[in-house]
Amino acid sequence: MTIAKALTIAGSDCGGGAGIQADLKSFQERDVFGMSVITVLTAQNTLGVHGVYPQTLEAIGAQIDAIFQDMGTDAVKTGMLFSDEIVHLVVEKLQQYKAKNIVVDPVMIAKGGAPLLQKQAMDTVKSRLLPIATVITPNLPEACEILGLDSINTLEEMKKAAKALRELGPKYVVLKGGHLEGSNEAVDILFDGEEYFYFTAKRIDTIHTHGTGCTFAAAITAELAKGKSVHEAVGTAKQFIQAAIEESLCIGKGIGPTKHSAYRLR
Ligand SMILES: Nc1ncnc2c1ncn2[C@@H]1O[C@H](COP(=O)(O)OP(=O)(O)O)[C@@H](O)[C@H]1O
Ligand SMILES: Cc1ncc(COP(=O)(O)OP(=O)(O)O)c(N)n1
């Protein structure tokens, strides 16, 4: 019996809503065998990030080696990489093992405002990580940070930003519109270098959106691992995250997580 395999290289969210935990839940829901490399432990809950504890480069490198020297992967997602040294290491290892189907979620700031990527790492993300990506999935604040823009406020500005992001080297850009204000719709734009594709869903009125970015990018990764095209993968991931937000969970005192099993249980 064979099964598609996906690896997440990301931070741990002990609260279970984002990071490694959200990724593994999403892989499982999409019937993909999930594996993980933990870059950073966070002490985190629905109220915010209370501590960040990076793992040693030795520990991160050994986890990546263990997976690629034995099981291999059909797709890889990167999430919270935190420091310049970790970004360098992950890029080198992914190149060494010729990893395919690399989904880069350029995680920078948590919804509560906590920094998840040190400022010094930004140049390396741009010059080394984005160029090896098959797909990148920035949200609007991340796109602004990468491109040095003050804000992105309209779909036209999103299109321009997606084009500029693609010039940094990834094959596909999925620019997420979850943060676009004043719209009844949550619109994500996929740009493949030639055409723009719109993935549109009704905006759900809830505060419980902790981990939406991780969950969405993990669902894309799972579909790529199964051999789906990027367009198909983004379409499925959009339905997956929409269901997860529609049934999001009022757990904890702050911004609750989404329900990863919602799409499967419909
Ligand atoms: N309130 C919402 N209703 C429907 N979809 C949403 C909502 N908020 C975010 N999304 C969708 O969730 C996915 C993750 O987007 P976003 O929240 O922008 O990412 P991040 O968690 O990285 O900030 C995207 O597909 C986005 O369109
Ligand atoms: C460990 C860890 N990784 C990533 C994030 C950011 O997750 P995201 O899906 O962007 O959701 P929010 O945290 O912004 O709600 C995280 N918080 N922790």
UniProtKB/TrEMBL annotation:
Pathway: Cofactor biosynthesis; thiamine diphosphate biosynthesis; 4-amino-2-methyl-5-diphosphomethylpyrimidine from 5-amino-1-(5-phospho-D-ribosyl)imidazole: step 3/3; Cofactor biosynthesis; thiamine diphosphate biosynthesis; 4-amino-2-methyl-5-diphosphomethylpyrimidine from 5-amino-1-(5-phospho-D-ribosyl)imidazole: step 2/3. The gene is thiD. Its EC number is 2.7.1.49, 2.7.4.7. It catalyses: 4-amino-5-hydroxymethyl-2-methylpyrimidine + ATP = 4-amino-2-methyl-5-(phosphooxymethyl)pyrimidine + ADP + H(+); 4-amino-2-methyl-5-(phosphooxymethyl)pyrimidine + ATP = 4-amino-2-methyl-5-(diphosphooxymethyl)pyrimidine + ADP. Keywords: ATP-binding, Kinase, Nucleotide-binding, Thiamine biosynthesis, Transferase. Residues 13-258 form the Pyridoxamine kinase/Phosphomethylpyrimidine kinase domain. One of its GO terms (molecular function) is ATP binding. GO terms for cellular component: cytosol. One of its GO terms (biological process) is thiamine biosynthetic process. This is Hydroxymethylpyrimidine/phosphomethylpyrimidine kinase. It is an enzyme of class 2 (transferase). InterPro entries: HMP/HMP-P_kinase_dom, PM/HMP-P_kinase-1, Ribokinase-like. The keyword Nucleotide-binding applies. Pfam families: Phos_pyr_kin. Belongs to the ThiD family. It comes from Anaerobacillus alkaliphilus.
